């Protein structure tokens, strides 16, 4: 099978391009991306797509400027439009720190996506090939990756990234460049065993091939493709489960059914959470195995009201009935929308995972903690339930006179993150009758003259507190 046939196979099997698409080809000037561009150029009429080249000068090496000009001229010789970018990675590292490779990759993808949007490209083609895949799989194995990690990378990822050379080896790429008379640029840092990937390529793989398995790279690639197929089946299965356990989806917060989630096997649970993070963030970057284990432990063993702090300002919060995954400030600063509670009746407050029940009994009735006894004749046929508002005040039972709700909650040492989720029960005209779980209003208390008592009960997740 020729190198062209292997690229055709990748394009066809993975549906890498669609009729009439504009493909943004990311070209560094090295042999991999240069060969990719040449092959895509020669196949563009066959598959009916157009090309636009993008190159980023990271300002990491003195040769970078010459390489940028080389790519510009190569694209020009093929009459392919090109966008040449510059970004001062060393300055960024000085300001923010971090790994050179990670920062460069992060900037590269961000800028390439901007260019794609600007020029109208729907796909970004990368020069990763079969040997890169073998190295990635082995590197992930050394780091203790699971099934998803051992897939390495796929011919299509993140929606718009494609890898036409996924079936092509480094040896075939070098032979192709020689045959075509291409003179790619070479990054001398690739020949130095500084980074882990370089050490794997230059030392570990040759040693394993010489002493254990001469076909190691081919078999690592074969394993990656097999795992890709199995992982895809598992992803489809988990996606269906995800839709069943997801109660509510907001831009920054996902709410899940705790009862159903807690019955799932740990491996499925972790995948549901990974899918949730991907939906919220757009990727799973900075989230590792230990984060998912902590979330799993909270779900299966943690107490309601507890949370797990996660990277990038995310948390997983466990209620009595629901799990909330999302930005900390969005979860902890959530407010209740306004609810109506008929008398008698009940209503579930989704944001705070509470059920409030109203029932009426004759005469005066003693109540337990987290219940309120009110004079039913003073309430009417319904009550409103909402979050606190600026300027709220009431007459706390047992205190003299009225008090600002804000001051009352401070005196009760209520955490500021919890205050917005405390149900404030009012009459239809807005008078506070009960700060749920804390104090009734003196004006609506049961007295010797009370003929009917309205009992309000808080239940968490349908279970009495």
List the helices and strands and how they pair.
Blueprint: H1 3-14, E1 22-26, H2 31-47, E2 50-57, H3 64-77, E3 82-86, H4 89-96, H5 100-119, E4 123-125, H6 130-142, H7 147-150, E5 156-157, E6 161-162, H8 170-180, H9 196-211, H10 216-245, E7 246-249, E8 253-257, H11 258-261, H12 266-281, H13 289-301, E9 307-309, E10 314-318, E11 322-327, H14 328-332, E12 339-342, E13 345-349, E14 354-362, E15 371-375, E16 382-386, E17 393-394, E18 403-404, H15 405-411, E19 424-426, E20 432-435, E21 439-440, E22 452-460, E23 463-464
Parallel strand pairs: 1-2, 1-4, 2-3, 4-6
Antiparallel strand pairs: 5-6, 7-8, 8-11, 9-10, 10-11, 12-16, 13-14, 14-22, 15-22, 16-19, 17-18, 19-20, 20-21, 22-23
Helix pairs in contact: 2-8, 4-5, 6-9, 6-10, 10-12, 12-13
Whole-number mean pLDDT: 92
Low-confidence runs: none
Strand order of the largest sheet: 3-2-1-4-6-5
Instruction: List the domain count as a whole number.
Output: 3
Strand content: 15-25%
**Which architecture of the largest domain per CATH?**
3-Layer(aba) Sandwich
Q: Percent helix among the residues?
A: 40-55%
Give the overall silhouette.
elongated
- Fourth-tier CATH superfamily name of the largest domain: HUPs
As a whole number of angstroms, the C-alpha radius of gyration is: 31 Å
């Amino acid at each position: 099978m020729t190198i062209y046939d292997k690229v055709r196979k990748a394009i066809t099997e993975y549906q890498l391009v669609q009729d009439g698409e504009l493909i943004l080809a990311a070209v560094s000037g090295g042999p991999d991306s240069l060969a990719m561009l040449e092959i895509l150029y020669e196949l563009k009429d066959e598959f009916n797509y157009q090309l636009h080249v993008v190159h980023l000068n990271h300002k990491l090496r003195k040769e970078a400027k010459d390489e940028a000009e080389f790519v510009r001229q190569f694209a020009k010789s093929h009459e392919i439009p090109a966008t040449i970018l510059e970004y001062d990675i060393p300055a960024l590292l000085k300001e923010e720190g971090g790994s050179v490779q990670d920062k460069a990759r992060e900037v590269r993808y961000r800028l390439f996506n901007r260019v794609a949007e600007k020029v109208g490209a729907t796909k970004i083609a990368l020069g990763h090939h079969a040997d890169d895949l073998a190295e990635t799989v082995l590197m992930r194995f050394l780091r203790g990756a699971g099934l998803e990690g051992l897939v390495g990378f796929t011919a299509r990822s993140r929606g718009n990234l494609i890898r036409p050379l996924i079936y092509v080896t480094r040896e075939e790429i070098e032979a192709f460049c020689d045959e075509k008379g291409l003179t790619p640029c070479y990054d001398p840092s690739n020949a130095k065993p500084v980074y882990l990937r370089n050490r794997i390529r230059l030392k570990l793989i040759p040693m394993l091939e010489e002493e254990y398995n001469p076909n190691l790279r081919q078999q690592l690639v074969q394993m990656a493709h097999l795992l890709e197929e199995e992982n895809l089946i598992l992803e489809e299965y988990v996606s269906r489960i995800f839709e069943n356990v997801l109660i509510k989806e907001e831009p920054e917060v996902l709410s899940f059914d705790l009862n159903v989630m807690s019955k799932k096997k740990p491996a499925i649970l972790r995948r549901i959470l990974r899918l949730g993070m991907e939906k919220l963030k757009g990727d799973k970057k900075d989230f590792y195995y230990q984060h998912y284990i902590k979330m799993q432990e909270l779900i299966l063993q943690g107490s309601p009201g507890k949370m797990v702090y996660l990277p990038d300002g995310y948390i997983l919060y466990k209620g009595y009935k629901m799990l909330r995954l999302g930005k900390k400030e969005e979860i902890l600063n959530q407010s209740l929308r306004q609810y109506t509670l008929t008398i008698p009746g009940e209503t579930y407050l989704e944001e705070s995972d509470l059920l409030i029940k109203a029932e009426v009994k004759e005469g005066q009735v003693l109540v337990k903690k987290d219940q309120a006894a009110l004079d039913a004749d003073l309430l009417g046929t319904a009550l409103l339930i909402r979050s606190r508002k600026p300027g709220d005040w009431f007459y706390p039972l047992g205190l003299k006179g009225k008090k600002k709700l804000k001051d009352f909650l401070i005196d009760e040492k209520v955490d500021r993150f919890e205050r917005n989720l405390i149900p404030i029960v009012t009459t239809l005209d807005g008078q506070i009758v009960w700060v749920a779980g804390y104090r009734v209003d003196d004006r609506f208390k049961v007295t010797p003259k009370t003929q009917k008592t309205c009992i309000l009960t808080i239940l968490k997740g349908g279970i009495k507190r």
